[in-house]
């Protein structure tokens, strides 16, 4: 398939993720949106990897492998980040009994 | 030779001593006792008077000439140079004094009459608190200093410094009782009107500088050919404008009656004897310029005569002692300008001298009366003071006779000299002068009779307190009365005594004697007889009408006179209100609408900007993320679309 459809999809997912981070109040939803952004980039990377493979498979059997490798890295990082983030949210809930991000303005001081 | 240097320092002391008196009394007014303040204040002026006397009799010694009597020409240079004041390019304005016959005469008048008034003030102002007493004498000394600078200056700029100084002191002294808002308004009015005249004076100075590049009298008067006729007319008219402001002529005279808000000795000194004569001095000093501008002389004479008549009519209907005397001053000043305008500079200076004597006498006498009736100034509630205040009454009577021009008192000689000159020049002006003389006699004797004759019409309280004034007040009265009687003998016209015109001869180096058309002796006798007849008739009419006081009828014309021909209201309508309106308009549209709007606008802009920038540190993580997103988008745009 033409690469541009993949790009549209990935960009759409990414933008939805950004808008979600900016507008939602619930911290867990915001996390989900962050995951959405990460996965959108994953999708894009895989699509480009396939494109490069199809373009260069005559000369190099491992063309476009970099993209897929990078996706692994991103997944690992996403997992680590989620675990740390959820831990923070749990602590937050314990202290303020809500997961509303609008109450998180202590950085002001 | 030590003589000139000593003389120079001595002359410097004349203005310096009153200035020191000003500093001492002004700075130490809380520390010194009232007696000491009075002694310092009066003593400095007395010392200046003594030095002035010495200078008067030794005029030739100034600048190193040979010793001759004061009536001869000065050999040597009467200009004493002290230091360079302004030195710009080829314009040199030195701080120099010119002590010649004219200035030394004025020096005597200023310091002599000034000393008497200082002495009088020590008693008159006795009830003031110590620091205000000190302030009074400080201002009075500052005034004497400025006036001395004015008459002694050797160039127009030093004269102008003194000119401004006396204007300032006039303001300070009129508004002496500053807690009264009406008095401060009167002071402001005096100063502003003076200032308008000063503009004329300044413009004249600039014009002179542009033509001859100097302001020294000796240089200006010896380079008359550098001025075209137009220049001369312009300069002299502008100088006269300055004189109308300072010497209260039409159109700038309305401040003088209001200036009666000041203490009576101030009215005597400043608004009768000295400051108001500054204009006369200036024109007499510049007689060389004026003699070459006959158009201006005509203007001066007409305005002088008109002012004399106008003020005399207003004085007929005034009920405040001091206001009558104020209008009388304006009227007599008109006479002096009439004299100047007809070329009789000596007659004008003569009248300055005699007027200083009898007007100061009249003012101080009125102060004595006011003191006796516990501060009341309305003559309608006076009367019958003749027996209770003998010295005051006698001296006041002498003053009235002098101003009426009854021979052989001083006023007779000076006033007749003026009327003679007017007759020679323009019969219409002479008629106006004669008419005014009659009115003058009438209102002065009206004042005398209403105040002193008849029965006392005031309150019981006032009647109890009527008392003759202390010696410090009566002695100046007596001295001035004597001067008013004998002061005229310095310039006896030829019809009486051959060679009696000592003043004319004395002033001849400064004011050249006019050998023009002279009237015959018989005409002179006739004129004098006419004036005396008019005066006597006026006295008789006033005597019959006012000997026993009755309420004066309030006809509409009388009311117009009492309201000063509504000139103040006219000025208010055509000058004050438009200026106020202009000020309000500028305030609303330019001050508030533009400048304030801009300044406030900057403030509001900063406010708005800061409110938006506050989001950078709001502590809300969402805002930070938004900022990150926006910056990324911008970077994107810059990188891919604008970096081509």
Report on the structure:
The complex is a heterodimer of chains A (109) and B (644). Chain A has 109 residues and is mainly alpha-helical. Chain A has a single domain, classed as Helix Hairpins, CATH 1.10.287. Helices cover 76% and strands 0% of the residues of chain A. Chain A is elongated. The model of chain A has no long low-confidence stretch (mean pLDDT 89). Among the domains of chain B are: 155 residues, no CATH class; 74 residues. Chain B is 71% helix and 3% strand. In chain B, a hairpin with a 2-residue loop joins strand 1 and strand 2. The relative contact order of chain B is 0.07.
Summary?
The complex is a heterodimer of chains A (109) and B (644). Chain A is mostly helical and 109 residues long. In chain A, 76% of the residues lie in helices and 0% in strands.
List keywords for this structure.
heterodimer, A: 109 residues, mainly alpha, Helix Hairpins, 3 helices, 76% helix, 0% strand, B: 644 residues, two-stranded antiparallel ribbon, 25 helices, 71% helix, 3% strand
């Amino acid at each position: 398939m033409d690469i541009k459809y993949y790009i549209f999809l990935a960009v759409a997912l990414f933008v939805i993720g950004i808008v979600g981070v900016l507008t939602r109040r619930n911290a867990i939803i915001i996390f989900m949106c962050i995951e959405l952004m990460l996965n959108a980039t994953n999708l894009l990377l895989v699509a480009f990897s396939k494109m490069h493979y199809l373009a260069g498979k005559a000369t190099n059997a491992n063309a476009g492998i970099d993209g897929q490798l990078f996706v692994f890295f991103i997944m690992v990082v996403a997992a680590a980040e989620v675990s740390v983030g959820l831990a923070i949210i749990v602590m937050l809930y314990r202290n303020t009994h809500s997961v509303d991000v609008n109450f998180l303005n202590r950085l002001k001081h | 030779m030590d003589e000139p240097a000593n003389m120079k320092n001595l002359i410097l002391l004349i203005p310096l001593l009153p200035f020191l008196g000003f500093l001492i009394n002004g700075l130490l007014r809380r520390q010194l006792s009232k007696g000491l303040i009075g002694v310092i204040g009066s003593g400095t002026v007395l010392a200046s008077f003594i030095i002035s006397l010495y200078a008067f009799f030794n005029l030739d010694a100034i600048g190193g000439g040979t010793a001759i009597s004061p009536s001869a020409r000065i050999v040597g240079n009467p200009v004493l140079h002290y230091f360079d004041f302004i030195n710009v390019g080829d314009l040199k304005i030195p701080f120099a004094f010119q002590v010649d016959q004219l200035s030394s005469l004025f020096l005597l008048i200023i310091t002599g009459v000034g000393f008497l008034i200082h002495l009088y003030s020590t008693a008159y102002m006795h009830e003031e608190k110590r620091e205000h007493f000190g302030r009074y004498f400080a201002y009075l000394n500052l005034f004497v200093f400025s006036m001395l600078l004015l008459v002694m200056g050797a160039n127009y700029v030093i004269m102008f410094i003194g000119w401004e100084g006396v204007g300032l002191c006039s303001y300070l002294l009129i508004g002496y009782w500053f807690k009264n808002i009406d008095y401060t308004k009167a002071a402001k009015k005096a100063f502003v009107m003076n200032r308008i005249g000063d503009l004329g004076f300044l413009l004249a100075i600039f014009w002179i500088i542009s033509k001859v590049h100097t302001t020294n009298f000796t240089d200006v008067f010896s380079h008359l050919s550098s001025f075209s006729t137009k220049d001369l007319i312009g300069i002299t008219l502008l100088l006269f404008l300055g004189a109308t402001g300072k010497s209260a002529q039409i159109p700038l005279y309305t401040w003088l009656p209001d200036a009666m808000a000041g203490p009576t000795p101030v009215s005597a000194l400043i608004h009768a004897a000295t400051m108001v004569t500054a204009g006369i001095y200036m024109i007499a000093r510049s007689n060389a310029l004026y003699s070459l501008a006959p158009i201006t002389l005509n203007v001066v004479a007409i305005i002088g005569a008109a002012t004399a008549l106008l003020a005399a009519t207003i004085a007929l209907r005034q009920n405040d002692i001091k206001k009558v005397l104020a209008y009388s001053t304006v009227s007599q000043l008109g006479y002096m300008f009439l004299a100047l305008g007809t070329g009789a500079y000596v007659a004008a200076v003569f009248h300055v001298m005699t007027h200083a004597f009898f007007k100061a006498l009249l003012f101080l006498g009125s102060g004595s009366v006011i003191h006796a009736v516990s501060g009341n100034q309305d003559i309608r509630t006076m009367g019958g003071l003749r027996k209770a205040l003998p010295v005051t009454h006698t001296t006041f009577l002498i003053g009235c006779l002098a101003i009426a021009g009854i021979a052989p008192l001083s006023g007779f000689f000076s006033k007749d000299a003026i009327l003679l000159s007017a007759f020679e020049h323009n019969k219409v002006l002479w008629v106006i002068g004669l008419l005014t003389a009659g009115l003058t006699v009438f209102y002065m004797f009206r004042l005398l009779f209403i105040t002193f004759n008849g029965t006392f019409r005031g309150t019981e309280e006032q009647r109890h307190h009527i008392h003759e004034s202390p010696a410090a007040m009566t002695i100046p009265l007596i001295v001035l009365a004597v001067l008013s009687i004998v002061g005229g003998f310095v310039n006896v016209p030829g019809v009486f005594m051959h060679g009696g015109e000592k003043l004319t001869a004395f002033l001849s180096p400064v004011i050249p004697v006019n050998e023009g058309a002279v009237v015959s002796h018989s005409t002179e006798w006739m004129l004098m007889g006419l004036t005396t007849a008019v005066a006597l008739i006026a006295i008789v009419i006033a005597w019959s009408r006012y000997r026993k006081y009755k309420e004066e009828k309030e006809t509409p014309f009388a009311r117009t006179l009492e309201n000063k021909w509504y000139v103040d209201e006219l000025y208010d309508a055509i000058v004050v209100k438009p200026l106020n309106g202009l000020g309000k308009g500028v305030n609303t549209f330019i001050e508030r609408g533009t400048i304030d709007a801009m300044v406030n606008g900057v403030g509001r802009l900063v406010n708005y900007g800061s409110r938006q920038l506050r989001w950078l540190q709001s502590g809300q993580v969402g805002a930070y993320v938004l900022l990150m997103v926006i910056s990324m988008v911008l970077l994107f745009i810059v990188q891919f679309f604008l970096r081509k």
